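Problem statement: downstream parser choked on a complex file, so we are re-checking the raw output for the NAP run. The parser issue turned out to be on our end (a line-ending mismatch), but while we're here, posting the original submission so the record is complete.
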Amino acid sequence: MMEKPKLLIPGISGLLGLNLAFSALPQWEVVGTTHSHPLAGSEFTTINWQYDKAGDAKQLVEQVKPALVINCAAVASLDAAEQAPEFARRLNTDFPGELALACHNLGIRFVQLSTDAVFDGQKGDYTEEDRPNPINTYARTKLAGEEAVLTCNPDGLIARVNFYGWSLSGQRSLCEFFYNNLRDGNHIRGTVDLFYNPMMASDLADTLLEMVSQKLSGIYHVSTAEQISKYEFGYRLADQFGFDSSVIEKASWKDLALDAKRAPNLTLNVSRLIKALGHNLPTVDDGLTRLHKQLRNGYRDTIRKLAIVVK
Ligand SMILES: NC(=O)c1ccc[n+]([C@@H]2O[C@H](COP(=O)([O-])OP(=O)(O)OC[C@H]3O[C@@H](n4cnc5c(N)ncnc54)[C@H](OP(=O)(O)O)[C@@H]3O)[C@@H](O)[C@H]2O)c1
């Protein structure tokens, strides 16, 4: 039997990392790093590892010797980045830069996950040619991460994304916020003045792997083609799962107690990617249908069972 090529996923315990690992398993031997959330036994190998200092990224790549690296490690919460800006800079900027350089020097393909939040949200429908203007610490460190990657690895692929899916904790993603509360009949608020185009994590994982197989490089917006408010997302999720949507109250993000400033319209234009792949991308409803199927076929439980309860 032919050996599978090796894929390294720094941040495999995160929301995207885990879903990516499951999407990649049929084609790739998957190795990933965890930090504060070690994983129980699974079909992939995990290394408990943390990025501390310059040199760590190179050492990791030399140890694993992958054919491909997709970097999912990050301080991915806007509010956490605001509270620990120096740590966010190291993980969101320095680490991807070092990883990209190590990959470039060793001839390894490299993919960096970036964010729609590099824009200020004043316009929406952003193309790759639009000028970023980050408005919070998270977004500034992610944009600097893009620049660090492209400076030392011109063949690197940068995917600006926004996504949702089932996570290790069951509480990481906006879809889990809506699902958990709608299931319990809790009254919740959904913002009508924050717009985005969220992609389901497994759809995103499949798309990233297709982009790698097509040898795409440079910056791409990778999301659904449909642009909706967060309230609308909750409403559609309720519809898909058969929950009562009347418990979702329409709200403004300005009424929520948030540390980091929010950008109102972060919708991404995905025409460049559709043209490059030669087909349309999954819609929001396609994603929600797949999410529901994953609940029914036990995929969500498989993910949750990987969590090790630290006593
Ligand atoms: N979630 C979204 O909707 C969204 C939107 C736009 C862009 N993105 C980008 O997509 C990527 C993946 O996001 P995500 O939501 O999957 O992130 P996540 O769930 O927060 O996972 C982050 C990962 O980074 C690891 N990590 C944290 N601190 C570390 C350290 N010091 N050293 C090594 N690893 C460390 C975490 O490990 P432990 O959990 O084991 O500590 C975890 O595996 C990120 O680049 C993020 O900026 C996400």
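For whoever reads this later: Residues 6-169+199-227+268-287 form a domain with the Rossmann fold fold (CATH 3.40.50.720).
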